[in-house]
Specification:
55% of the residues lie in helices and 0% in strands. It is mainly α and 280 residues long. Helix 1 packs across helix 4 and helix 6 packs across helix 7. It is globular and about 50 Å long.
Length: 280
């Protein structure tokens, strides 16, 4: 996926609003987690630890770390999208802006609601920007690239990366606490929930896909496949014995939306970086 490849098609304005609205909200939610002082998300722990050691703001550290991680895409041959590059800058700027406006919280009566609000808003933000289909963020792209190169499971690669990031951030002075645990347990289900509500229709016929995978008509998970006709092809085989009842479900991978009773396709195509993001 190139940076300019997603800048076309229907619903472009809506997708751009979702992308930048989601990234901004992500920065806001991360700042609320900082103000709660009850523990940050894994990469936030690293950013906070580095900020304390360097004297930079946590948003500035987020931008620097995102840029460094993006450089690691080069040897693993990952291609950034508009959302990837925007992720580097928008989240850090939104985070610093929110921290400048929201004061430190005193007492659990304020900190606990800030934590809960930050986690929920982070799930909303993740659903918004993933559904925009402009590519994964630098950190998630690193994870999916390592998964592809090593052949290890997404869960194993994600766990190894996040454990290393949290441990490093903690040693540098980053905040690890109950918020870190609650975030890890809840962000996947929250992102799935909001992704289905923000999914942008990619083409007519009721199919919605929130993915940066291959273009419509190709198999999303296994690379290029045969083009899909908008009408199912007739079966060329001769009838054998009594005619069996036809299966009302559309064939897997078919481009036809099928009858109204057909199962609705998933909001994220299997095998894409976006699906890997949701495997928490």
């Amino acid at each position: 996926m190139s940076i300019a490849s997603g800048l076309r098609g229907r619903h472009l304005t809506r997708r751009l609003v979702q992308l930048y609205g989601g990234l901004t909200l992500y920065g806001v939610s991360s700042a609320l987690l900082v103000r709660s002082a009850l523990g940050l998300e894994p990469w936030g722990v690293l950013h906070q630890g580095l900020a304390g050691r360097t004297g930079l703001t946590i948003g500035a550290v987020s931008i620097v770390v995102g840029a460094v991680v993006l450089l690691l895409w080069i040897p693993i041959r990952q291609r950034p999208g508009l959302g990837t590059v925007s992720n580097v800058f928008v989240i850090g700027l939104a985070m610093d802006g929110t921290l400048a406006l929201v004061p430190d919280a005193d007492g659990l009566a304020v900190r606990v609601p800030l934590l809960a609000l930050g986690i929920v808003l982070n799930g909303v933000a993740t659903g918004l920007y993933i559904a925009a289909r402009f590519g994964p963020g630098p950190r998630d792209g690193l994870m999916t690239g390592l998964h592809r190169l090593t052949g290890r499971s997404v869960r194993l690669v994600r766990t190894a990366l996040e454990v290393a990031v949290v441990a490093t951030g903690f040693l540098l002075g980053g905040s690890v606490g109950i918020g870190t645990v609650l975030y890890a347990l809840s962000i996947g289900p929250l992102a799935q929930f909001f992704l289905r509500r923000f999914a942008v229709p990619e083409r007519e016929g009721g199919i919605t896909v929130a993915s940066s995978g291959p273009a419509p008509g190709l198999r999303p998970a296994d690379g290029p496949g045969p083009a899909e006709d908008s009408h199912p092809a007739e079966d060329p085989r001769p009838a054998e014995g009594p005619r069996q009842a036809e299966d009302p479900r559309p064939a897997e991978g078919s481009g036809d939306a099928g009858p109204a009773t057909a199962a609705r396709p998933p909001a994220v195509a299997p095998g894409t970086p976006e699906q890997a993001i949701l495997r928490r």
